[in-house]
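Lab notebook page, bench 4
Experiment: in silico fold of construct C2
Operator: M.H.
Input chain length: 64 residues
Purpose: comparison with the prior construct
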Amino acid sequence: MAYKIIASQCTVCGACESECPNAAISYKNDMYVIDPKKCTHCEGHCDTPQCAVICPVPDTCVQA
């Protein structure tokens, strides 16, 4: 399953967007969203999903 961003917790800092190796994160309608068709959990790039690692708010980028 892809990751998702919990909108109610997201501070819209944008840190995750540039860290995604698959360009799966984008800014839409005043919030960041993850395209599940592009999200691969960073497999083949990193050991852990970078959105979850870089996010300053714990448990905001979570597995859908």
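Observations: The two ends are 6 Å apart (CA to CA). The CA atoms of residues 9 and 60 lie 6 Å apart.
Next step: discuss at group meeting.
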